[in-house]
């Protein structure tokens, strides 16, 4: 079996532009941790199973809406900032093309190209205004102006995956069980599974990624359970 070089394959890198994967991962993890901690907190206070379900459902709905709106606003604001910087760079290229070409050549010289070669390439790029704009934006801002994440994709992805993550620790109650420890155990399994899935995109060992998420969630749940227990005891005095 021959080993085809990665450079000859059409798609040999994952999408790292931040379109849907980042908000999906963040949303799922946040949903899991938020509702596990919320359920642990109110459960530690000694409330009924019905109150836990009501609290967890309210947390799911409020958190999912907040995450969706936050992601939309964040990504759209970032895109608008990039657009403003691209417009600024376009004006500079129109007004001072020679200075911009020298700036581009200087950047390549700093990376190890010879002055003559860097100048020749910069002059060649300068002949095509749109390509010159793309190259200057990539070099100076570190972004691709033609490959910006969609705020709607980020918002919808975050909303859906937060909802799924937040639903996991509620499942045992929705199926009739009333033991807090069982809900927290299922939530812990969800955290471990989510971390293991993330490892698929990062090439980390699945078990270390899963264990990391489990420990972080356990720390949050332990803290809120302690607070809930203290408030519950105080409220009963």
UniProtKB/TrEMBL annotation:
Keywords attached to this entry: Membrane, Transmembrane, Transmembrane helix
TM ranges: 152-175, 181-202, 214-233
Compartments (UniProt record): Endomembrane system
Chief site of localization: membrane
Pfam families: VIT1
Lipid bilayer topology: Multi-pass membrane protein
Keyword Transmembrane helix tagged: yes
InterPro entries, per the entry: Ccc1_fam
Domain of life: Bacteria
PANTHER family in UniProt: FE(2+)/MN(2+) TRANSPORTER PCL1
The protein's name: VIT1/CCC1 transporter family protein
Source taxonomy: Bacteria, Bacillati, Actinomycetota, Actinomycetes, Micromonosporales
């Amino acid at each position: 079996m021959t080993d085809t070089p990665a450079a000859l394959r059409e798609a040999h890198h994952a999408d790292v532009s931040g379109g849907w994967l980042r908000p999906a991962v963040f949303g799922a993890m946040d949903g899991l941790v938020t509702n596990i901690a919320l359920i642990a907190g109110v459960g530690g206070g000694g409330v009924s199973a019905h109150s836990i379900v009501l609290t967890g459902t309210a947390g799911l709905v409020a958190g999912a809406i907040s995450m969706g709106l936050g992601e939309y606003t964040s990504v759209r604001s970032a895109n608008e900032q990039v657009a403003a910087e691209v417009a600024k760079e376009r004006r500079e290229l129109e007004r001072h093309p020679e200075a911009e070409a020298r700036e581009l050549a200087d950047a390549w010289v700093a990376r190890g190209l010879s002055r003559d070669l860097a100048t020749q390439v910069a002059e060649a790029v300068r002949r095509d205004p749109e390509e010159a704009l793309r190259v200057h934006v990539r070099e100076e801002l570190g972004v691709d102006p033609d490959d910006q994440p969609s705020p709607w994709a980020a918002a919808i992805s975050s909303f859906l995956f937060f909802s799924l993550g937040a639903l996991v620790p509620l499942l045992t109650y929705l199926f009739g069980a009333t033991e807090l420890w069982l809900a927290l155990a299922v939530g812990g399994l969800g955290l471990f599974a989510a971390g293991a899935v993330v490892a698929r995109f990062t090439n980390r060992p699945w078990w270390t990624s899963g264990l990391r998420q489990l420990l972080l969630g356990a720390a949050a749940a332990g803290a809120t359970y302690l607070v809930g227990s203290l408030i519950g005891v105080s409220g009963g005095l």
